[in-house]
Each structure stands twice: as C-alpha cells, then as structure tokens.
Design brief:
Layout: H1 2-17, E1 22-28, H2 34-52, E2 56-63, H3 68-80, E3 85-90
Parallel strand pairs: 1-2, 2-3
Helix pairs in contact: 1-2
Length: 92
C-alpha cells in the first residue's frame, strides 16, 4: 500500500492547494489495485470539496472497451460522488 500512497501523496497535496477557478480531472487506467483505488477515491473527494468551495470541477473516467470491469469501477466511483459531474468514456 505504501507505493500507492507515496505515489498519490504529492498529487493529493497539489489538488488541496490549487488556487484555480476550474478543475478538470481525467483518469485513464489499464489496471489498479485496492491501494490505488483508495487513493483515487480520496483524490476524487478532494475534487468534490473544491467544487463545494465554488470551483467549477468535473471528472472524466476513461476506460478501454476491452476492459469492461474498468467501466464498472468508474460507475462505482460516480455513484459514490454525488454532486459532481463525473463522465465515463470509452477510449476505443
């Protein structure tokens, strides 16, 4: 788990400290594990908090049509993050 946490730590910090009017987050992954999943959820929650503070924010989850399980993961995240524009797109 430390590898994912170490990887995402600067990204999470950067999002928390951003001073912007809008935030557009695009995620495209071929694979991820439980640790990365938890970190992504935290990232998405921070984006949601930015939106709640008045920043225009959205998230795009991109997946390969050859990996339908990644579409399902995106749908799960979208269901957890009520109140933010969360689009799911196939990249093929």
């Amino acid at each position: 788990m430390n590898d994912a946490v170490d990887y995402y730590r600067p990204i999470l910090k950067e999002i928390s400290e951003l001073k912007v009017d809008s935030l557009h987050v695009v995620v495209e992954m071929e694979y991820f594990n439980t640790s990365s999943s938890k970190c992504l959820l935290e990232l998405f929650k921070r984006v949601l908090r930015k939106q709640e503070s008045g920043i225009v924010a959205d998230i795009v989850w991109r997946y390969s049509s050859s990996a339908p399980e990644m579409q399902e993961v995106g749908e799960d995240y979208r269901d957890l993050l009520d109140g933010i524009n969360f689009d799911i797109e196939s990249v093929d």
